[in-house]
Design brief:
Blueprint lengths: L1 H14 L3 H13 L5 H70 L30 H12 L10 E7 L4 E6 L2 E6 L4 E7 L3 E6 L3 E6 L4 E6 L3 H25 L1
Antiparallel strand pairs: 1-2, 2-3, 3-4, 5-6, 6-7
Helix pairs in contact: 1-3
């Protein structure tokens, strides 16, 4: 039951096209897995209420955000996105409620067991400069993913940024010394390249080409949207500059 409802809600969440909502839902589910029936009801109810609020609020939020980015065309897209969310998010909330209750019942040891009451909010991301900035859900989630990759193999590594590749179940993960491609569902590294092994990174029309030292062809990173390509390219620049500073300081 829990697996079926979980799969249904996950599929519908992808159909909303709402990246922020998907990240928030994924974060909540990863950190708030019900370990007993009481918590399953509570977390399921919270998930349902959150999805309902997001669906209703999206009717106004998405058109405004779209208008700011693309004018009239963005406004029209935002209206469509808002109505899509209104149609799908309540259903997602209902499936999440059923999934949490079913999983909580399955995992029940005693209703008074407090070990399942995990924190909903992930640990704040603080960059290498040590400056505490306003809490970013996206950065906190990216840091959490990095530290849980490959069963915690990269736990002590420093996170810079990440980019999810739409429709590909892949995440580009950037550390201060490496760039990696990660399978999102399994949180397993597909490939991993040291920054000092890279000769050039060039932006193409449909993604980014990595060339290794000696002219060897590296992997191609498929990033369709230009804004996403530009953003990722800037973040790689940050990583390279920091890597060079560390290297020169040691030298």
């Amino acid at each position: 039951m829990a697996k079926f409802t979980g799969s249904m809600s996950k599929g519908l969440a992808a159909a909303t096209l709402d990246k922020e909502y998907q990240d928030q839902r994924r974060m909540s589910k990863s950190r708030n897995r019900p370990k007993h029936a009481l918590y399953g009801v509570t977390s399921g109810g919270n998930a349902f209420a959150s999805s309902m609020a997001s669906g209703i609020g999206g009717l106004a939020r998405h058109p405004l955000e779209g208008a700011e980015k693309e004018g009239l065309q963005g406004f029209v897209k935002g209206v469509g996105k808002g109505f899509l969310g209104l149609a799908t998010k309540p259903a997602i909330g209902a499936f999440d409620l059923a999934s949490n209750v079913a999983e909580g019942v399955r995992n029940t040891t005693t209703v008074f067991d407090q070990e399942g009451l995990d924190r909903v909010r992930l640990t704040r991301f603080i960059g290498m400069d040590g400056i505490v900035r306003p809490y970013s859900q996206r950065e906190a989630l990216g840091q959490f993913w990095l530290k849980t990759l490959d069963d915690g193999k990269h736990f002590h590594e420093d996170y810079i940024a990440h980019l999810e590749l739409p429709g590909k179940d892949m995440i580009v993960m950037l550390k201060y010394n490496r760039i990696m491609l990660v399978r999102a569902k399994k949180l397993k590294v597909e490939w991993d390249i040291k920054l000092n092994d890279i000769q050039t990174i060039s932006k193409e029309r449909t993604g980014m080409t990595i060339t290794l030292k000696g002219g060897t062809n590296g992997p191609f990173v498929p990033v369709q949207e230009q804004s996403s390509r530009d953003w990722l390219y800037r973040q790689i620049g940050v990583a390279v500059r920091h890597f060079n500073e560390r290297y020169n300081a040691k030298g």
